[in-house]
Amino acid sequence: MELPRHIVDAVVAQALTEDVGGGDLTTLTAIPATVQSSAQVVVREAGVVAGLPVVIAVFRQLDPGVVVLCHVAEGATVSAGTTLATITGSARSILTGERVALNLLQRLSGIATLTAQYVAAIAGTQAKILDTRKTTPGLRALEKYAVRVGGGYNHRFGLYDGVMLKDNHLAILAAQGIDLAGAIRHVRRQLGPMVRLEVEVESVAAATIAAEAGADLILLDNMPPDQLRLAVQAVAGCAKTEASGGVTLQTVRAIAETGVDYISVGALTHSVRALDIGLDI
């Protein structure tokens, strides 16, 4: 679950530039420079904590004299009212960094919390919960980290680390007279042996063709559970299978019980609700 420091520092620097700009006018005019203070970061609802290293990075960049003492471990499941960290030092620095620190901590904890709920919902099955590329621009590394904290797994990080033939790719190739099997063989010839090739299909018949043509992973798009089960049986272990499309906490268990290997959930990052966390002086 490592979160590289250089990535954290880059995101934090951009966020501070965006929020603070030339200076926190309210704090600079209202709070004397000599005032020291202490604040507690408190979670208002139960959840999984992700992003404490980011909070530390915010205050490290703003003011190295500010001390952040974490009281829970990253990835801990906490109840409402739990104090996550204590921040001591310049009152000006604490007030200036408050919103950036909370914005990132709340979002990452929200992602970890939702991911953990999906993971719990499929406990006892062979399926694994995956994220997608539907992430906030500029925050992908942090958001995918939060998915891992919540017990999920990462799909591709970008377009550069895996091949995924989706419906639009296949439509363009079909217009050139290249069918599904031909498309897979065409792409496979150009790949190294360590590159995974995934193909999106919408029917059991297409899943069978994809498996026979040499796809490593078959994305079964928007299929109901009975069709997913048939597709898994048709593929018969020749390729890994991934269910995707409109997955919810209410439907994920039934999807997992069809025997698919992976379930990708875009909602983990594209529409997650931030966990309610506050900073109290």
Topology:
Layout: H1 5-20, H2 25-30, E1 36-43, E2 47-48, H3 52-62, E3 67-70, E4 77-78, E5 83-90, H4 91-121, E6 128-130, H5 140-149, E7 163-165, H6 167-175, H7 180-188, E8 197-201, H8 204-213, E9 217-221, H9 225-235, E10 240-244, H10 252-256, E11 262-264, H11 267-270, E12 277-280
Parallel strand pairs: 6-11, 7-8, 8-9, 9-10, 10-11
Antiparallel strand pairs: 1-5, 1-12, 2-4, 3-5
Helix pairs in contact: 1-3, 1-4, 3-4, 4-5, 7-8, 8-9
Identify the overall geometry.
Answer: elongated
Q: Level of helix content?
A: 40-55%
Whole-angstrom Rg: 23 Å
Q: From the helix content, strand content and strand pairing, which structural class follows?
A: alpha/beta
Mean pLDDT: 97
> How large is the share of residues in beta strands?
15-25%
- Uncertain stretches of 5 or more adjacent residues: none
What letter string, H or E per element, gives the SSE order? HHEEHEEEHEHEHHEHEHEHEHE
- What's the end-to-end separation, in Å? 31 Å
The number of helical runs is 11
Find the count of extended strands (DSSP E, 2+ residues): 12
Largest pleated sheet? 6 strands, parallel
- Side-by-side strand order of the widest sheet: 6-11-10-9-8-7
3D architecture notes:
- The chain is 43% helix and 19% strand.
- It is built from 11 helices and 12 strands.
- It has a 6-stranded parallel sheet.
- Helix 9 links the parallel strand 9 and strand 10.
- The radius of gyration is 23 Å and the shape is elongated.
- The chain starts with a helix and ends with a strand.
Overview in brief:
The protein contains eleven helices and twelve strands. The protein is an alpha/beta fold and 281 residues long.
